[in-house]
Amino acid sequence: MRSAVILAGGSSRRLGYDKGLTPLAGRPLISYAVEALRPLVDEVIVAVASDVQRTPYRSVLPAPVKITVDLYPFDSPLVGLITGLTEARGDYAAVAACDMPFIAPEPVRLLFSRASGRDGAVFVKPNGWIEPLLAVYRVDACLAEALRLFRAEDLRIRMVLRNLRDVAYIQASGLDVDPDLLFFDADTEEKLGAAERLILGGSERGGVAQV
């Protein structure tokens, strides 16, 4: 069984409002990540920060999507990861952020394939950084490490996979899709505008380059 965890509990400081619910080309921003991942997994879990968020997210997401509230009152993706992995029933979980509208299926399939039998799989960006918010995590091992980091007051989500021994590192530059689009996060007004231009038929490279 495979799971997907989408993190929607951030404070959206750059936008000033709940970015997952922000309209993008007539749809809530989070719906793009949900619809990209649903066909690839057996369950989708959305982790939100509070009960206040639960009702509006429930109103825009399909019924099979599970919405769960962060277990700890810390504004950190690591807490969302812990919450989502705690709820996950799959052996492996694809993890993404709610503001990623251009997730493509083949890279996610590749992550699951390369993670099989290991602690996870993660893309390495052209600049050498890993991308922990489009990665596949082995649920039991990664949950244990995430909890250890949280108790040590280290909230860096990227350290979960960095600290585990058996992780597949995949060079994003070798993908058949544009990494700039795959990892695109629409977390500012400017980026939302660029994403809308892309979705409505604007120039892909030009739209991304403007933000």
Show the helix and strand layout.
Layout (H helix, E strand, L loop, with lengths): L1 E6 L15 E2 L2 E2 H9 L5 E6 L2 H10 L5 E4 L7 H11 L4 E6 L7 H11 L4 E5 L5 E9 H13 L6 H6 L3 E5 L7 H4 L6 H11 L4 H6 L2
Parallel strand pairs: 1-4, 1-6, 4-5, 7-9
Antiparallel strand pairs: 2-3, 6-8, 7-8
Helix pairs in contact: 3-5
What does this structure look like?
This protein has 211 residues and is an alpha/beta fold. It has nine helices and nine strands. The protein has a seven-stranded mixed beta sheet, sandwiched between helices. Strands 2-3 form a two-stranded antiparallel sheet. Helix 2 links the parallel strand 4 and strand 5. Helix 3 (77-87) packs antiparallel against helix 5 (139-151). The N and C termini lie far apart (38 Å). 43% of the residues are buried.
Strand order in space, largest sheet? 5-4-1-6-8-7-9
Low-confidence stretches: 203-211
Determine the number of helices (DSSP H or I, runs of at least 4 residues): 9
Class by helix and strand content?
alpha/beta
Task: Label the overall shape.
Answer: globular
Helix content: 25-40%
User: What is the number of strand segments?
Assistant: 9
Order of SSEs, N→C? EEEHEHEHEHEEHHEHHH
Average pLDDT score = 91
Radius of gyration: 16 Å
Query: What is the CA-CA span between the terminal residues?
Result: 38 Å
The biggest sheet, with number of strands, parallel, antiparallel or mixed sense and barrel status, is: 7 strands, mixed
User: What proportion of the residues form beta strands (DSSP E)?
Assistant: 15-25%
Oligomer: single chain
